[in-house]
Amino acid sequence: MDCLSLFRSLLLSLVILISLQLIFFLCGSSSAVVGVEKTNAAVIVKDLVHDICVQTSNPVLCDNTLRPRRIPMPGNFSKLAEIVLLYTSNRASTNRMDIDSYLDNETDPNMRKQLFVCADCYDLVNEDMFKCEEALSQARFVDLFNYAVIAKGNEVQCELGFAASGAVEPPQLVTTSKLFQDYADILRVIAKTAAGT
């Protein structure tokens, strides 16, 4: 097995693992909050979700993503960030695999060069996602904010490269890159709100 095949296998395993985590998370049990406390918590969380989403680049995506499946305790930014981080990491890994697929089928040298640049950008993005997970696990929201901003910036370098090189970005990559940027922006706003900055 060559290095590229091994890398693809590892990346596919990572995507499957993240997808399974997302499924288990979304199918988890509801909060233990009961009665009036549960109602009040739902209202507080709903208001928090609204307050976060209006600050993002895609409020509709934010609202649909953060609408509580399990009601976290009021002010539990970690739970909200965890939801978004699963989506963001999954999108970053999937986009990286899509770029490999484009490379396999592309013969134009200019386009291949730009796809390699994007592959490098997404390698950095995936490293940033691991740093986000580590920061979130330790409730280091300032670091989470910084890594989310850096990840989005690394992805934007892929987009800017297409514009600068004159290569036409594949339409599907345009869509999925925008989706990654929107998720990263939601993560940024949650981290910023949690850090009180």
TrEMBL record:
Domain Pectinesterase inhibitor: 44-190
Keyword Disulfide bond attached: yes
InterPro entries tied to this protein: Invertase/methylesterase_inhib (IPR035513), PCW_Enzyme_Inhibitor (IPR052421), Pectinesterase_inhib_dom (IPR006501), PMEI_plant (IPR034086)
Record carries keyword Disulfide bond: yes
Transmembrane segments: none
Keywords: Disulfide bond, Signal
SUPFAM superfamilies: Plant invertase/pectin methylesterase inhibitor
Family recorded in the similarity comment: Belongs to the PMEI family.
PANTHER family for this protein: PECTINESTERASE INHIBITOR 5-RELATED, PECTINESTERASE INHIBITOR-LIKE
Protein known as: Pectinesterase inhibitor domain-containing protein
Organism whose genome encodes this protein: Cinchona calisaya
